[in-house]
Amino acid sequence: MEKLELVRKWSLNTYKCTRQIISEKLGRGSRTVDLELEAQIDILRDNKKKYENILRLAQTLSTQLFQMVHTQRQLGDAFADLSLKSLELHEEFGYNADTQKLLAKNGETLLGAINFFIASVNTLVNKTIEDTLMTVKQYESARIEYDAYRTDLEELNLGPRDANTLPKIEQSQQLFQAHKEKYDKMRSDVSIKLKFLEENKVKVLHNQLVLFHNAIAAYFAGNQKQLEQTLKQFHIKLKTPGVDAPSWLEEQ
């Protein structure tokens, strides 16, 4: 009997919410709107798409840089081998080998910085922001339920009041109040999460954008010392072949 009652309540709630959604889409139903909060949510969703695009581009850059570093390392080895076997061009092959190996080393250092940037932005986008958007979805569901039961109560209040309708109005009032409290709580939860997310986002992106800029600038300036110093500044350790590097959260 308990299961049947739960199914009945779920079916009734689903029916009311579906009716509310259809009514809103057809322009017949009223919708509760928090303009300030919904503007913040729209900005968040738009920013998430833009951050995802940056993430994809950074991953492409990382892949391309990895391939270039791999080629430079192979080229350095080829020059070094010819330096030993071609006495008349020993020096020429030798300094080309050294140059390619240095470029490969600097490329690996830059790769470490870019991959750290990718891991940090990925955590922000696909964990922190996604967690907030899950709360937003719950808030939006609570809003639909609230409006559905509000509409029911308004319709009953417009009708006659007699011995048959008064119990229904009282029950509708109780259900409306319960869903109003749920809606108010979810709205408060979303506001708090958006506030903390904004603070965390600014902090994370500030550090990562400084890292990205400094590493790229040092690499293309040929400043090996500054490039290595940038990694030390952000406590980044280059991945040893065959060993999994700690995640960004573990680094923190």
From TrEMBL:
<keyword id="KW-0597">Phosphoprotein</keyword>
<dbReference type="GO" id="GO:0034315">
    <property type="term" value="P:regulation of Arp2/3 complex-mediated actin nucleation"/>
</dbReference>
<dbReference type="GO" id="GO:0019904">
    <property type="term" value="F:protein domain specific binding"/>
</dbReference>
<dbReference type="InterPro" id="IPR030798">
    <property type="entry name" value="Arfaptin_fam"/>
</dbReference>
<keyword id="KW-0472">Membrane</keyword>
<dbReference type="GO" id="GO:0032588">
    <property type="term" value="C:trans-Golgi network membrane"/>
</dbReference>
<dbReference type="GO" id="GO:0006886">
    <property type="term" value="P:intracellular protein transport"/>
</dbReference>
<dbReference type="GO" id="GO:0070273">
    <property type="term" value="F:phosphatidylinositol-4-phosphate binding"/>
</dbReference>
<protein>
    <submittedName>
        <fullName>Arfaptin-1 isoform X9</fullName>
    </submittedName>
</protein>
<dbReference type="InterPro" id="IPR010504">
    <property type="entry name" value="AH_dom"/>
</dbReference>
<dbReference type="Pfam" id="PF06456">
    <property type="entry name" value="Arfaptin"/>
</dbReference>
<keyword id="KW-0175">Coiled coil</keyword>
<keyword id="KW-0333">Golgi apparatus</keyword>
<feature type="domain" description="AH">
    <location>
        <begin position="32"/>
        <end position="232"/>
    </location>
</feature>
<dbReference type="GO" id="GO:0005829">
    <property type="term" value="C:cytosol"/>
</dbReference>
<feature type="coiled-coil region">
    <location>
        <begin position="34"/>
        <end position="61"/>
    </location>
</feature>
<dbReference type="InterPro" id="IPR027267">
    <property type="entry name" value="AH/BAR_dom_sf"/>
</dbReference>
